[in-house]
Structures are given as C-alpha cells and as structure tokens.
Amino acid sequence: MRYSGWRVIAEGLRGQRGWAPVWRDPAPKAEYDTVIIGGGGHGLSTAWYLAKNHGLTDVAVLEKGYLGGGNVGRNTTIVRANYFLPGNSEFYSHSLKLWEGLEAELNYNVMHSQRGLINLFHSDGQRDAFVRRGNAMINQGDDAVLLDREGVREMLPYLDYGQTRFPIHGGLLHPRGGTARHDAVAWGYARAADRRGVDLVQNCEVTGIDIMNGRVTGVQTTRGAIRARRVGIITAGRSGQVAAMAGMRLPVESHILQAFVTEGLKPCIDHVISFGMGHFYISQSDKGGLVFGGDLDFYASYAQRGNLPMVEHVMEAGMTLMPMIGRAKVLRSWGGIMDMTPDGSPIIDRTPVEGLFIDCGWNYGGFKAVPASGWCMAHLMATGESHDYARRFRLDRFATGHLLDEEGTGSQHNLH
Amino acid sequence: MRITCPLCGTRDRREYTYYGSDDYLNRPAPDAPPQAWDDHLHNRDNPAGRTRDLWYHDPCGTWLAVTRDTVTHAVHGVDPVMPVSGRGGA
C-alpha cells in the first residue's frame, strides 16, 4: 500500500524523506501516436480517457509550465449540472455523473463535496425562469428543488433578508451541486494517465504545428520536434495563439475573471451560493477560506490580474448579500484568462486540418466540465466522430447560426 | 486602467464600455460571402500583446479605438472613431 496512516506517522518521524514522485518526468520521444497540447485539467482528463476508454497509450501531454498550473489550479471549484439548453444539458449532466464516480475511478481523493448549490432569485419573473430551469434539470435526470423565501432562510439564515435592492424571494437548490479540490483533480488524472503509460512532458512549450498537405504531422517544441498522427489543442485562454500556429482564427476572445479567498474561518457557509443579480457567488473551502468571485472585467486581457473596479463591485455585492463576511480579511485574489466564445458555450471539434482537434471556449465554467470534456475530446480524437454529448459544441456554429446561448444575451464577444 | 478620451481627458476605466476588437470596423459589403461576415463578427486574432479595440466613453458618447497591450494593460494611443458601423450594438 502506497499510503496509510502508519506511513504518514513513519514519514513524519523520518523527516518526510521517503516519499517518491507519483508520476514520471519523461523526456519527449521523437514520435507519438497522439499529442495533447496543454497539461491542464481538460488535457489531462483527455489523456486519461484516451487510455481508459480507447486503449490509446502512445500519448504525450505537452505542458509549457507545470501540470495543472493554469486555471485548474486557480478557480472557485464549483461542480454543477444546472444547464438548460439541449446540447449543454446532457453534457454537464454526464460530467456530474463522472464526478460522482471520479474518486473510485482514479483512486484519488478529489474531495468532491456535494454540499448543494443555491441560485437565489429576486423577482416573480426570475422565479418563473428558475422553475423552468429546474424542470429542465429534472427532465435531464438531475435534481432541482424550488425553495421559497422561508425555505432559503432555513438553510441560509445569515443572508440579509431586509435589503430592498434585490429582495430574496427564494432559490433554486441543486442538491448534487457542490465543490471539489481543484488541484487534486489535475493530480488524480495525471497520476492515473501516467500509470497507463501516457508521457506527461512538462516545461515543453509548443512553438509550431507541422502540417503537410492539409494533414497534421507533428509539433515543434522547446524540447525538439515531435511527430504525431493526431494532435489536440487544449490550451484554454491561450487557444488563440496555438490555433494561429495552424493558421486558424478562432471565435474566441480571452478575458480576465477575478476571484478571491479570505483568511481561514470556522465553518459558516455550508453550501455554494450564487447571487446572480449581484454577480457574486461564494463557498467555503475545507481549509476555511471563503472563496468567492464575480463577473468578468469585461475586456480582452492576458494580464492574469484584474482591475480594482471589479474588486470593489464584488465586495459590494458580497456585503449586500451577507453582511456577516464584512470583517473577514481577503487573503489573496487572482485573475484567470478565460477563453470566451461569442455565445458563452465551448468548442470540442475537428479543425479544417486533418488530424488536428480543438477543445476550447470554456468561458468561466471549465472546471466542472473537466471529466466530460476529456471524455468527449478523447472520443473525438480516437474515433474522429463527435461524442453524442458534445455534438453541438461545433467550431462552425457561429457561421451556421446553431448557437448555444445559455444566457440568452446574444452572440457577441462583449456580452458573455 | 485609465483611458484618455480626446474630448474629456483621462478618465477611470468605469466610464468606458468595452465593445471588442477593431475587426468590428471592417464591415463587409452586404453581398460579401458568409465567411467574411463570420470573420467580422466572431473570429479574432485575440493577441497577447498589442491590440486595437473599440471602447465607448459613456459620459460623452464617443467611440474610441484604443491601442493597448493585453498583457500589461498599458494604453499606447486613443483615436476617436466616427462614424462606427454597428453603433448601438454595445
């Protein structure tokens, strides 16, 4: 047995010198069957499902930094399946089911906690919309419970029920929603893929994509050229730059999304709470920090840090909803690069280059999609056909008009 | 981030609404092929570095083409744009 209580005690007495790395650090080979560009959550889960579901293990994941060092290591960790539109609904439903079996599947504690997610509503119209969404979730086979004001008060007594700007009329409870330990998800997939023989190559930046007669033949990297029959681009906020190496322009604009963590507090917020009217959502991590965030800064940026107006806006929204957090000190904040599509839904599709596939456009919702994105991308790369659950995540849908506009705000870059 | 409006001077980012890349200025002919419209509306270079994009200064109602760096948030230049196709879309 690799891990046990006894081992923890023994290593404590030996100065923790006996632990070995849990995955290899291989140099890249000159040729692989399949190369995945990007060692984040989606890239690693794709590698795992290529090995597990399709028996493909001649696979390399090329990561320019370290595994899981991007958005999968810096997010607000929410896992949910409360989508409405056909195309999104079955995809996220599948993802949640994969989450529920993930720890057993990977033999890794990802600390998936189905603590329940509550979306608050503040008007009759919003309640009607949530009833409809809840029915869609139930029809999809997931769960939803409509709470009235007293129902919400019973679960969340600490909200400000007296404020008049957005009075709390009730909430839509998604009991199977919750959080997970974000880093552990990357590590769990990495270890599982490595054990099946996948090479996880770090500090290996892709600098070019080799194409001959319309077919991908390999990639150029900072650690040498690598030939490959199939290449997947899974690089989130940097998708535009990597796709440009293959001569493509994507329907993607990269934006900044900020999030915040407070000092550790005793348990006080037992659920995930989403306050859509204030663009604010919050949960409490197992370490005790309050983890919360708001909306995009709303302009194209790669700075990995946001601007103060959005910080102020998020703090104001938090104080409007739950004044009790006012004296908690914010420990840190960060800004992640979000690959935003015009309609706010992702892309898992072939590209015009034969053998080159792309998985991008996760907007601000990529974390919960990690299992199903890997599942569907692996299916696409292994079979050449879109998985049923991802068949509407098409690259050409903006040209053809088959949009997936979950928010219903229109297909335009500055709206999502 | 602060942007200098040619009419009003240097103002806080909160006075401006971001619209998007200056691809929006290159409006295709009405009979242009669908691909040209797709490029106009959706497909982007999305550069990490120097870019030029459209902002609306809410108080004075001027459309601006801002040359700036997406990595550092430095603003290199601001030009008024008029008339702007797609006005009112923001």
Task: Summarize the topology.
The complex is a heterodimer of chains A (416) and B (90).
Chain A: H1 5-13, E1 31-37, H2 41-54, E2 59-62, E3 78-79, H3 89-106, E4 117-121, H4 124-139, E5 145-148, H5 149-155, E6 170-174, E7 178-179, H6 182-195, E8 199-201, E9 206-212, E10 215-221, E11 224-233, H7 239-244, E12 253-264, E13 272-275, E14 280-284, E15 289-300, H8 308-321, E16 330-340, E17 347-350, E18 356-360, H9 370-383, H10 397-400
Parallel strand pairs in A: 1-2, 1-11, 2-8, 4-13, 11-18
Antiparallel strand pairs in A: 3-7, 4-6, 5-6, 9-10, 10-11, 12-15, 12-16, 13-14, 14-15, 17-18
Helix pairs in contact in A: 2-6, 2-9, 3-9
Chain B: E1 2-5, E2 9-12, E3 16-21, H1 34-41, E4 50-57, E5 62-69, E6 75-80
Antiparallel strand pairs in B: 1-2, 3-4, 4-5, 5-6
Cα shape of chain A: globular
Radius of gyration of chain B from the CA trace? Answer: 14 Å
Strand content of chain A: 25-35%
Major sheet description of chain A: 8 strands, mixed
Helix content of chain A: 25-40%
Number of strands of chain A: 18
* Number of contiguous helices of chain A: 10
Largest sheet of chain B: 4 strands, antiparallel
Specify which chain pair forms the largest interface. Answer: A-B, 25 and 30 residues
* Quaternary structure annotation: heterodimer
Distance between the termini of chain A: 48 Å
CATH architecture of chain B: 2-Layer Sandwich
Report the C-alpha radius of gyration of chain A, rounded. 22 Å
Uncertain runs of chain B: none
Order of helices and strands of chain A: HEHEEHEHEHEEHEEEEHEEEEHEEEHH
Question: Which structural class do you get from the secondary structure elements of chain B?
Answer: mainly beta
Mean model confidence by pLDDT of chain A: 96
Q: Helix- and strand-based class of chain A?
A: alpha/beta
Total number of distinct structural domains of chain B: 1
Give me the strand/helix succession of chain B. Answer: EEEHEEE
